[in-house]
Write a structure and sequence with these properties.
The complex is a heterodimer. Chain A is mainly α. Chain A has a single domain, classed as MetI-like fold. Chain A has twelve helices and two strands, in the order H-E-E-H-H-H-H-H-H-H-H-H-H-H. In chain A, helix 8 runs antiparallel to helix 9. Chain B has two domains: about 230 residues, Rossmann fold (3-Layer(aba) Sandwich); about 110 residues, Beta Barrel (OB fold (Dihydrolipoamide Acetyltransferase, E2P)). Chain B is built from eight helices and 20 strands. In chain B, helix 2 packs across helix 3, helix 2 runs parallel beside helix 4 and helix 3 crosses helix 4. At the A-B interface, helix 8 and helix 9 of A face strand 6 and helix 2 of B.
Amino acid sequence: MFSRAYRTAITLPPMLWVVVFLLVPYALLFCYSFWSVSPAQTIAHSWTLDNYRELLRVNVYLQTLFRSMWIAARVMIFSLLLGYPLAYYLSFHAGKRKDLFYQLVIIPLWVSYLVRAYAWKTILGSDGVLNTLLQYLHLTKHPLEFLLYSPFAVVLTLTHIYTPFAVLPIYAALEHIPRNLVEASHDLGAPPLQTFWRVILPLSIPGVLAGATFAFVLSLGDFLAPLLLGGPSGIMISNIVVSLFGAAYNWPLGAAISLCMLFLVVGLLFLSESVEKKWSFR
Amino acid sequence: MATTTEPAIARSAKPGTEPLLTIRNVAKSFGKNPVLRDISLEIAEGEFLTILGESGSGKTTLLRIIAGFESANSGEILMEGERLDLLPPYRRRVNTVFQHYALFPHLTVEENVGYGLRVAKASKDEIATRVSEALAMVKMTAFASSKPAKISGGQQQRVALARALVNRPRLLLLDEPLSALDANLRRQMQVELKSLQREVGISFVFVTHDQEEAMVMSDRIALLRMGELEQVASPREIYSHPATAYTAQFIGHTNLLRGEIKAGIARCKSLSWRVGLPEGQALFSLRPENIRIVNSERAPDVNAVSFPGRIQHQAFHGATELLQIICDDQLALSVRTATRENWQGELRLEFLPSDAVLVRESPERG
């Protein structure tokens, strides 16, 4: 059908892209995770499993990983709790304002992540907007310390940042529900609430899963929010990786942790995809 | 001698009996665009009523108002004397078969059919019995545990029907339910649907744009044109005595003859016949099958209007043929005949004055 030259011409760029930006980095990461740092602070290119042993032996790595997962899980839950009603309103009740509201959900994504994280810093700090307001209203006498530099601050910021990522797939799933199914449910005697539980929610599950996966995976790998707002108790696994690749100069251990994270995330994506498939009917 | 003086619009089915559903002066517009104007209609217990109309005539809107998915701007709807239009759709004892079936894709055939009963909190045993009865009725028992995506359009159609009928509604609304089926299956379903309706005895309101379908299935046809009822009558009545030019043309083929009545004689171009009608301008509908070709084997009818004609065109339709005739170089007529031979040149034709039905002009709307 198409000439050989044409096929080569259109296949080459994506292949190059995959090789240069994906395969080579992953291969390097893989190799580094089996190498070690010599006492002379150079990378020794001899194969060893020490990095993985280290990872299991030193408690702080696994603890931080579990804390990261717990933070990501909370972000996921709050994003869904905020995102679902927003998506539902947008899809079913926004009417003419649908496009406007949709844009309002999107616009924060155009603003730099760093700016939004800093904004929360100025809101949550000891002299921040929230503490000043609470004291002005005489609700508190002293600034609330737990607001900033805590897992709370990290969860709050990440929820704010990743909620749009949960809204969009849920919104898309709700938009795909044929409206005559809602009418059919009413027609068969189901009031709005029952129609939601029996028809709308089950049919939007694929979107909920996609949104949950986005929120969880993106939060799990986040390092800026814990860096800026987390404090010592809000450290996440990516912060450790960053320091291992930086000041600590232990690329092999950093690579081993990264690879574990990668497998965790890929596993999660497969899981969510297979559940999603079960819930799609067309 | 010609035409009829019967009331053209018979809005109530059986005089004297309480109608099941009464639609009274219902009007609806979307924005500034009027869709329905002053619709009044009654539906009797056990009746098969078809709302027939072209796309944009308002037929689906009328159905949606009865179901409760739209609300009328004015007028009221009563079911057995009680206001129906004030209830939300989930409180009406009306069920709908949707145009594209609207089966729940995440539920099996069985679960779809049992949906209404589960919502109504019927007991497990009752749900099981009634669902299997309903599936047997539409011959879908074998597919009870299939998902809708796995069955054909015709089968989805049957499931949609079972899902509605299992709730034993007082009234079943059907929104062009056969439009997505191919011609053969469609004809088969027309017959099945009609006999099913007889069997269950539930009133059906059937919406279609297909006049043939309407004729085959209905007890009465309500013809809707641009948001107003043109005529409501039985298929035979509406066919043989169309009230308006639009009805005559929309339901079957017809020849419209525009002429004048003077001193008991109707005149249209070179044709003339006796009528017992008042003087003035007149419009007659003359069905193509009511014009006969006179030949040596068939003696001319003494009461008939006889005239010469020349064949312009002959179209073969299987059981019948449609001839285009020109009479005295000025009047074009369609003639339907059963005979299968090649007609040539000049012919002698005739029709009975009683077959030329006086119709009203259809007023301009919009």
